[in-house]
Design goal:
Helix content: 40-55%
Order of helices and strands: HHHHHHHEEEHHHHHH
Radius of gyration: 23 Å
Largest sheet: 3 strands, antiparallel
Mean pLDDT: 83
Structural class: mainly alpha
Distance between the termini: 66 Å
Number of strands: 3
Oligomer: single chain
Shape: elongated
Strand content: under 5%
Length: about 350
């Protein structure tokens, strides 16, 4: 078997585990990136011509040395982990006699500190600005209900960018007043995030404005929750622009940590939960750092603790203060659109 064939076999096995498209794409990049270097060192055009038996510890050390040159330690460490999983699979499937990754050095990833928004009242300023009435100078092509809903979900539910963009209308479930968002996180793992009535109202206001823009047709359950003005799923670039514009309109761009534009909202969510008394277990589960079993009737003791933790956070209190204003503005906007 060639290395290329072995990589294809491994990736097929990952698909069966229902891992996300982003995870599979990252696996492929790391496997093919190091595989190309292995082939080049062995004098072959590509990994499809390199026999698997030639992928030794010595060959891997040389390939990883080249792979590491232009990359950060975290990227090299991730690739090492993928190749270790790859060889564990090959050994289990009796395609390789052993795992040579033990002889390949793995860099220690630097400690990553949270990067929340700076400033005591920055989240409140951001929410208040997003909920404010539309003015011509700030918003030339506005969809304030959607923009406010996106910011509110990021700040009050702590979702990753990819998680928010993958939400469907059906992701919002549960009984009124006890809504949950079913979120698919890293590795395809699902978790349930409690949604407070105030955030529920903001999302429903956005969905009503969306229906008004489509001549009264409500969004189907299988459609994306957040869409662009063209009706298609909101993209990563559009999300970055939306959040960046919200920072500028609120006058808080200087409070955003470098390199953490959208992710700063997730870090703010987690940091404020901790400051306001949430336990480490509650925070880990809400952020999707632990495995959870979810269901429509997510009303057990753990869910109540998580809901109480969100309810107690200052960001949720800020949303409660401005949500009424946003709903009134949204109703007026929907009427104008319908006319």
């Amino acid at each position: 078997m060639s290395l290329g064939e072995a990589i294809a076999e491994f990736l097929r096995s990952r698909v069966a585990l229902k891992q996300s498209a982003n995870t599979l794409a990252a696996y492929r990049r790391d496997l093919e990136g190091v595989g190309e270097l292995l082939a080049r060192h062995g004098g072959y055009e590509d990994a499809d011509r390199l026999g698997l038996e030639k992928v030794t510890g010595r060959a891997l050390r040389a390939a990883f040395a080249d792979f590491a040159q232009p990359r950060a330690a975290s990227s090299v460490g991730r690739a090492w982990s993928v190749w270790n999983q790859f060889f564990t699979f090959l050994v289990a499937d009796e395609l390789a006699p052993g795992n040579p990754m033990g002889s390949v050095g793995r860099p220690k990833a630097p400690h990553r500190y949270p990067k929340p928004l700076r400033g005591e009242d920055t989240p409140e300023l951001l929410l208040a600005s997003a909920a404010a009435p539309v003015d011509k100078e700030r918003r030339r092509a506005p969809w304030p209900e959607r923009d406010f809903a996106v910011l509110a979900v990021l700040l009050c539910a702590g979702l990753r960018s990819s998680e928010l963009l993958e939400l469907a209308v059906s992701s919002l479930g549960g009984r009124r007043g006890e809504r949950i968002l079913t979120v698919r996180g890293k590795g395809g793992k699902e978790r349930a995030v409690p949604i407070e009535p105030e955030l529920e109202a903001v999302i429903e206001d956005y969905l009503a404005s969306r229906a008004a823009r489509r001549a009264g047709r409500e969004a189907a359950r299988n459609e994306p929750l957040f869409v662009g003005t063209d009706g298609e799923r909101l993209g990563r670039g559009a999300l970055q622009y939306l959040v960046g514009r919200a920072y500028r309109e609120a006058g808080v761009s200087g409070q955003v940590p470098t390199g953490a534009s959208v992710h700063a909202l997730r870090h703010t969510f987690a940091t404020r939960l901790a400051e306001d008394g949430a336990s480490a277990v509650e925070i880990m589960r809400l952020l999707g750092h632990a495995s959870l079993t979810t269901s429509q009737n997510y009303i057990d003791a753990t869910a109540r603790e998580q809901r109480a933790a969100i309810r107690a956070s200052r960001t949720s209190r800020a949303l409660r203060q401005v949500a009424g204003v946003a709903v009134r503005v949204g109703a007026e906007g929907a009427g104008a659109t319908a006319e």
